[in-house]
Specification:
Helix content: 55-70%
Radius of gyration: 15 Å
Strand content: under 5%
Order of helices and strands: HHHHHHH
Number of helices: 7
Number of strands: 0
Shape: elongated
Structural class: mainly alpha
Length: about 130
């Protein structure tokens, strides 16, 4: 099974679609397999599970690890999620400049989280968070 298929199966378990019951633990296992093979979307999804405590114990530092892996592959969703961690100090020391940089990278690439990330980036500009007003 390809990484993409494994991630898709994980999303089906996560959302309870495709004839599968919602099962966060099964979703995590699918994401873990694909993340180990370097799939950036699986890394992002696994990070989300660790951040929220879905199918695993809530571990913000693990979330940051997986978001970072995703972000390092220029995945805009990983960059946006890691930016949130830096903005709010989730699993890392709060760093508004780093959050701004990650939001900016993510917005430039587009992607699924683009609208929300545009709002976050705009808020940074409005309030001077990590950048000048």
């Amino acid at each position: 099974m390809s990484e993409g298929s494994i991630v898709a199966r994980g999303h089906c378990f996560f959302s309870g679609i495709g004839g599968l019951e919602q099962d966060y633990k099964e979703a995590v296992e699918c994401y873990r397999i694909a993340a180990a093979k370097g799939d950036s979307w699986a890394q992002h999804s696994l990070g989300f599970c660790y951040e929220k405590g879905l199918g695993v114990f809530k571990q913000p530092q693990e979330a940051v690890k997986y978001y970072s892996n995703s972000s390092e592959q220029d995945d805009p969703s990983g960059q946006a999620a890691l930016g949130c961690c830096y903005q709010y100090g989730i699993g890392v020391k709060r760093d508004l400049k780093k959050a701004f940089e990650l939001y900016n990278k993510s917005v430039k690439q587009g992607g699924l989280c683009n609208r929300v990330t545009q709002v976050r980036l705009g808020f940074c500009y409005l309030k001077g968070l990590g950048t000048e007003k």
